[in-house]
Amino acid sequence: MRLKTIKKLCCPLDKQDLTLQIIAQDLDENILEGMLTCSQCQRKYPIIHGVPIMSPDEYRQTALEQPVIDRWENALSNAQTHLLNH
Ligand SMILES: [Zn+2]
């Protein structure tokens, strides 16, 4: 998903701004992997294969997300955090 499009996203729960950590992007500023974090409720929405996972809690598949997030652990601790203001 393009960075421009991601900047328009907000937390689906409380509509607050998100912060973005970029793990992988291509030359066209498409974010392939990254982590969105809500500034309000601190929920985390991973971007996996270019798709932000922003389903409500009851539809989240933590078992599928967690291995990816574990793999990102190092990258996330080194990644810059971008605040996405609207
Ligand atoms: Zn939130």
Explain what you see.
The chain is of the alpha+beta class. The protein has one domain. The chain contains two helices and five strands. It has helices at residues 3-6, 62-78, and strands spanning 18-25, 31-38, 44-48, 51-52, 81-84. The chain has a five-stranded antiparallel sheet, with helices on one face. 16% of the residues are buried. Residues 11, 13-14, 16, 38, 40-41, 43 line the site of zinc ion.
What is the radius of gyration?
A: 12 Å
Low-confidence stretches: none
Instruction: Give the structural class.
Output: alpha+beta
Whole-number count of domains: 1
**Biggest pleated-sheet summary:** 5 strands, antiparallel
Q: In percent terms, what proportion of residues is strand?
A: 25-35%
How many DSSP H or I helices? Answer: 2
Percent of residues in helices comes to: 10-25%
Distance between the termini: 18 Å
